[in-house]
Amino acid sequence: MRNWTAWTADIKPLPGGIVGRLVLVLLALIMYVGDVWVGSGDSFGKYGALKLALPYLPLVALSLGALPGAALWLACICIIAAVGMPGALLAGLVFPSVIVVAGSCYLLPWRQAVLFPLLGEVVLFFLYLLVPNAPLFAVAMVGVFVAFAGVAGLSLNAFRRRHESSTKRIEDLEVEQAKIRANERTLLAHELHDIVAHDVTIIAMQARRAEFVDDQKKTSEILEGIGNSAQQTLQDLRSLVLLLKEEDKASDAAGESATVGPSIIDLAELSGETTTAVGLVHDLDAVADALQSSGYEVKLTVQGEVARIPASLRQALRRTIRELGTNVLKHAVPASSVEVGLYVREGNVQLLATNDISDEKPIVSSKTGLEAMRARCRVFGGFVEAGEADREWTTSVTIPLDGLSKAN
């Protein structure tokens, strides 16, 4: 009973709702009235008008669903065979057969949709053998049209199933990305606490120190330091708030691919010292080590004074480093050379990754990594350049340091 209920639940409803049902009923009624009007039922003797309705009953049944339409179509073929398979009834059955068979094959589950026209052809063939003097041409015409209708219906069925599969996959991805975004917001909240706690702690220590200083010059220096730290804290707050806003527009969390694809390194493996220059370099080394252990020959370059990078920007770079490593793992030629670099220049900081492009399709790719990087860079006024040259893929992330106060 449960199997039957599950099977019938997979049958799709007729498109068009009530309008689609009325169209089928009216179409059957018009064709039946037309046949009666021209006197086609006179040749069937007594109850000729009732016999003339047989070819059109499956159309009416189809308005109730694919299963009633298919069952009544098979029943009508058997009834027509029982009255001798007159050519007029078989000719009248051709057009309804096309609609019923194609519609049923489109609406039924795939396995039943394949079996239905095959069963119809088998039933038609054996009834022809059993009925004396059955018109071969009329039977063959019905069989040919049933075959064409079956192929058309199965083609539409396959297209419908692909569409439903794609829709389901999109819905699943949206749900998964919603979960990832929620997780990302939690992570950003922790990072916000880390950054603000760092700067506010410095402000508190400097303020306490000012209580014990009598020198006006030193007091002024301390107050200037407090002002700079407060300015940095505000800058960090603005940056992280913008990141939270950009997340909804560019699926920043989905770009991390933490749960939908392979990751170069887990969050737990990163240093956690996200407000220090040493922590940023440690994270870069961790990504390089992870690539090295995966079989790549990694050339890591760090140039410039990393301490000049503000704490909030270090957080964005930390995530971008991880994303660059993940992209290499997905798209680079196995056991090839990879170059990763962090360059702190006078006016900007640049992250650079270069790798050979693999001809193999990546196992998993959410295709949102670059969009996520661009979302982060826009918060700090930076930009991302990515492209192929001589079978090498280069990703460059450049963020200006002008206007960002130096982290403590």
From TrEMBL:
Key words, A-Z: ATP-binding, Kinase, Membrane, Nucleotide-binding, Phosphoprotein, Transferase, Transmembrane, Transmembrane helix, Two-component regulatory system
Pfam families the UniProt entry points to: HisKA_3 (PF07730)
Domain Signal transduction histidine kinase subgroup 3 dimerisation and phosphoacceptor: 184-247
Cited InterPro entries: HATPase_C_sf, Sensor_HK_TwoCompSys, Sig_transdc_His_kin_sub3_dim/P
Enzyme class: transferase
Catalytic activity: ATP + protein L-histidine = ADP + protein N-phospho-L-histidine
Membrane spanning residue stretches: 18-38, 59-82, 88-108, 137-159
MF terms in GO: ATP binding; phosphorelay sensor kinase activity; protein dimerization activity
UniProt superkingdom: Bacteria
Cellular component terms (Gene Ontology): membrane
EC nos: 2.7.13.3
Protein name: histidine kinase
